[in-house]
Structures are given as structure tokens and as C-alpha cells.
Specification:
Layout: H1 8-33, H2 36-43, H3 50-71, H4 77-97, H5 101-133, H6 138-161, H7 166-185, H8 191-196, H9 207-213, H10 216-243, H11 248-251, H12 253-276, H13 278-298, H14 302-316, H15 319-335, H16 337-368, H17 371-374, H18 376-387
Helix pairs in contact: 1-4, 1-5, 1-6, 1-7, 3-5, 3-16, 4-5, 4-7, 5-15, 5-16, 6-12, 6-15, 9-16, 10-12, 10-14, 10-15, 10-16, 10-18, 12-13, 12-14, 13-14, 13-18, 15-16
């Protein structure tokens, strides 16, 4: 099947615009999750009720992703992304500014639904742009997300340090990010639009069949990768302090290290995929991530544990972007751009499945057994990726070596 034709200049603008969108989303999401204790205090949410609030966001995000799969059969993903990204930003502001717990619950519900649609649409556009370029660029978009996460976490730290209210912290940030998202949205490139030469979307007939028959291995890989990621985000500080005996201050470092190494790994990951192929990069990432969990589990002290979390960032960072790319490619080769978008939306649900499963799984195992032993479970789950690594390769060749070269010489 022939790849969509996207003019070179248009593709470059679209690439920058989509990277900005990933950056904005990374910033917004970090500002939410790092200030959960402040949200809890502001609205008087009890410890017993907080898990329900936290679980509702990824559950509703999954619903949003499912709805997006249906919407993009008639509406281009670029339009979905252009519409929902400002909503996500404004929902963040509302979550920190409303006056009651009920209003906060509504704001978080809107955030969850919109973020599911946002994640799905961003990755749909990333997959179609990568197809237009004919080489791996997907990791670069996720690197922009990681950079946004670091910026958002840093802003959250500054807000906590200077004891700013959530409204004062979120207000100026949203006032900047919404115009950025709106302006970037003008330059989004939808590969299906250029392929069909008209405003309508390419039919998605076969998207469901593709997702059921071909996507299950990739869905498992996605869920396992996010179990690993949520283990780091939710348990790294507690593990370093309670198990490895670090200070409270040092215990805050592993997640920051993880975020930085994730950014670095994604920044250079596309070069690795172009040089060695997606299968080799994903296999290498899985082995490095599993090694990181092993080091964390066996660490004699805090600094050894820190080294393990560093390896985790370098290993896990490549798996998720390549899973989206593989899903989009498999569906596109079979049934075209509409099926590709549907497959990405279906796969995106397992992002939230892994996030929901990871934290309680490690916590339950840690309480019932030991936290060192609990770290071996995500290690084994990450190794599941090795079983399905061939699913990441296009027809036995490296990405871009077959039928997915761009049709214009000036795509850069």
C-alpha cells in the first residue's frame, strides 16, 4: 500500500506543531499528578476517597480513547486534537480553581475524557507523519512529552516551594499553553487528508478486525510498559527511603532521574531505530529495563538503587512510542489510514490499563511479600516484550526500507 503524500515543508511544520502539542500535554499532565496532595488538601478529599478520584481519570481517559476511535471515522484526528487540547488545559485550571469537591470531580472527569481523546489523536498524527517521512520520528514526539513533564514537574516544585495556590500556579501556565496549542493546531498535518485529497477521512472499515487479530501482542506490551512506568512514578521515592534507607530529600531524586534519562533516550532513540531497526531497539530497551528492575531489587544502598532507576528510564523510554508506531503500521498495511487511526485509539486504552494495574499491584505484593520481591514482577512483565518483539518489524525489514518512503524529495 502506498504511503500518503505529504509535501516536505508541510511535513516539517506539522512535525514541529505536533512536537509542541506533545510538550504542552507533558507539561499539563505533570502539573496535575505532581500536585495531587495539594488538590486533596484544597477540597478536603479523604484518604479513603482519593483512590477513587485518581482511578477515575485513567478510566475516563480510556472511555475518551474509545470514543475517539469512533469519532475519527468521520472527523480527521487533527481536528480532534485541535479541539480537545485547550479543553485539557482549561480542565487543569478548573481542577485547581473551583470551590467544591463536586466541582473538582467534574473538572477531573472532563480532564480524563479529554486527555484520552488527546493522547489518541496525538499518536494518530505521529504515526501518520512517521509514515509520510518514511523513517522513525515517533520517539522524538515522545521526547517532547518527556521534556514537558520535566518542565511541569519543575513548575509544580516551584509552586510548592513558594506556597502558591493552585489557581495562581495553574493560571499563568494555562494562559501561555492554550495560545501555544491553538497556534500549533493550525499547522497539524493529517496524512489521510493529503492521501485522499479532500476534507473527509479515509474509511476505517477493518479497524476493529485489525485491533482484535493483530494488536493483542502490542496491547500486552503497552500494558506491561506502563506497569513498569507507574511502578517508578508511584513507588520509587518510598522504595528508596523505606527499603534502601535514603534521606527524604534523596528519595525525591529517582523519579527526576528517570524523567531525564527517558528524555535523553527518546531524543536519540529515532537514530537507533533508523540504524538498527525497531525490533532490535525494542529488544534492547526491554533488556535494559529488566536489568534496571533487577538492580533496584538487589541494590545494597540508595545510590545503587538510583543506578537501577536510571537504567529503567533508558530502557522503558523506547517501548511505548514504538508500540504506537507498530500498531499504526500493521493496521495501515492491511486496511489503510482509517484502520491505522482506529488501531492507535484501541491500543491507547492499554496505556491506562497498565497505569491502573501497576501501582496497586506493586503495593499489594510489597505488603504481602516484600518490596524487593515486588520489583521482580514488573521486571518479568517487561520481558514479555521480547516474546512479541517481531511484531515491531515491518515485513521483516527495518522501518522505511519497504513501501513507506516519502514521495517527495524535500521531506526533512
Amino acid at each position: 500500500m502506498t504511503a500518503p503524500r505529504v509535501p516536505g515543508t508541510q511535513a516539517r511544520y506539522g512535525r514541529v506543531a505536533l512536537a509542541l502539542s506533545f510538550f504542552v500535554q507533558g507539561t499539563v499532565f505533570a502539573l496535575l499528578v505532581t500536585r495531587i496532595p495539594a488538590i486533596q488538601d484544597r477540597y478536603g478529599i479523604s484518604d479513603a476517597l482519593l483512590p477513587a478520584f485518581l482511578a477515575a481519570v485513567p478510566v475516563l481517559a480510556g472511555v475518551g480513547s474509545v470514543l475517539t476511535e469512533r469519532v475519527v471515522r468521520r472527523v480527521r484526528p487533527s481536528r480532534v486534537l485541535r479541539a480537545v487540547q485547550p479543553v485539557v488545559c482549561l480542565a487543569l485550571l478548573a481542577a485547581g480553581s473551583v470551590r467544591s469537591m463536586g466541582q473538582a470531580a467534574v473538572a477531573l472527569a472532563v480532564f480524563g475524557l479529554a486527555v484520552g481523546a488527546l493522547d489518541a489523536a496525538m499518536n494518530m498524527l505521529g504515526v501518520s507523519l512517521q509514515r509520510a517521512y518514511g523513517r522513525s520520528i515517533m520517539l522524538g514526539f515522545h521526547a517532547a512529552y518527556s521534556l514537558g513533564g520535566i518542565v511541569g514537574a519543575s513548575l509544580a516544585w516551584a509552586g510548592a516551594h513558594w506556597e502558591l495556590s493552585l489557581a495562581v500556579l495553574y493560571g499563568p501556565v494555562v494562559a501561555v499553553l492554550v495560545p501555544v496549542a491553538v497556534v500549533a493546531g493550525r499547522w497539524f498535518v493529517d496524512g489521510r487528508t493529503t492521501a485522499t485529497g479532500q476534507g473527509g477521512a479515509e474509511p476505517a472499515s477493518g479497524a476493529a478486525a485489525v485491533s482484535m487479530r493483530l494488536l493483542l501482542p502490542l496491547c500486552l506490551v503497552m500494558a506491561c510498559a506502563y506497569i513498569g512506568d507507574s511502578t517508578v512514578s508511584n513507588w520509587s521515592a518510598k522504595y528508596l527511603q523505606d527499603v534502601l534507607g535514603s534521606s527524604e530529600q534523596l528519595a525525591t531524586v529517582p523519579y527526576n532521574v528517570y524523567m531525564v534519562t527517558t528524555l535523553l533516550g527518546r531524543a536519540v532513540g529515532d537514530l537507533g531505530v533508523r540504524r538498527f531497526g525497531a525490533v532490535a531497539v525494542v529488544r534492547g530497551g526491554a533488556v535494559v529495563a529488566a536489568g534496571g528492575f533487577a538492580v533496584v531489587a538487589a541494590a545494597p544502598g540508595a545510590w545503587a538503587g538510583m543506578a537501577g532507576f536510571t537504567l529503567l528510564g533508558l530502557g522503558l523510554c523506547v517501548i511505548v512510542p514504538q508500540t504506537f508506531a507498530a500498531a499504526g503500521r500493521l493496521a495501515y498495511e492491511r486496511d489503510g489510514g482509517g484502520a491505522s487511526d482506529g488501531a492507535v485509539a484501541r491500543l491507547n486504552i492499554f496505556n491506562y490499563v497498565g497505569f491502573l494495574v501497576g501501582s496497586p499491584l506493586v503495593g499489594a505484593l510489597g505488603d504481602a511479600w516484600s518490596y524487593r520481591g515486588a520489583m521482580l514482577v514488573p521486571m518479568l512483565l517487561v520481558l514479555v516484550t521480547l516474546v512479541y518483539a517481531r511484531s515491531f518489524g515491518p515485513s521483516g525489514a527495518r522501518y522505511g526500507d519497504v513501501h513507506e518512503r516519502p514521495r517527495t524529495a524535500d521531506v526533512g
